[in-house]
Amino acid sequence: EGDRRENVRVRVGYGGTIEGVVYREGAPVPGAAILIAGAGNTRTATTDASGFYRVENLSPGIYQAMVTDVSSGSLDSIYGAQGRQVMVEEGKVSRCDFGQEIGARITGTCVPGPGNLLGGRVVLNLPGANPLPLGAIADLSQLIGQSTGITPGGTFTLTDVPPGDWQLDVYYFEFDGPNPLALRYVHAELVSVDAGANLTLNLPVAF
Hints:
Layout: E1 16-21, E2 23-24, E3 27-28, E4 33-38, E5 41-46, E6 52-58, E7 61-68, H1 76-79, E8 82-88, E9 93-95, E10 104-111, E11 120-125, E12 137-139, E13 146-150, E14 155-161, E15 164-173, E16 182-193, E17 198-204
Parallel strand pairs: 1-9, 10-17
Antiparallel strand pairs: 1-6, 2-3, 4-5, 4-7, 7-8, 10-14, 11-13, 11-15, 12-16, 15-16
């Protein structure tokens, strides 16, 4: 009779969750700004008094989680925004902490530096994993991997680096282009990282 329907089940997906704690020098950081980008989504959050954040209802996929310690009041915190690659699965919680300082540290200088107010990004990838050729243009949302910012003068510090063989991919923001989130791929550097090491690099940029 009419449109009567029985035994109809509708399954609603609630996605996955990314959560974690932001630390600075071993102490939790309240008020840090979190940006989660990937899988067609961009979400933001702020850490609470205990340095904890949680972003829910994310579609499954690979995301870039980034943190800026705006509470420090330093401009360096903007350029030093740390990024991590996070896999989100349906119905699961993915943990992503920042600032634990349990890995190696890479300090670098890119010559010449970006020379603009936006600076750039340096991304840690497995050797050969980046499909882009040098000189290619990428969007910020495409830079999936552990990362940090590059100052206008070309300096950066990448912390919590796991031991192993890595490729450092360097990108500069296209400051005067139509897309404010566009970056040019300007350099690739292969590095071997030992546990707990402190590496200092000088990177010649060709583009």
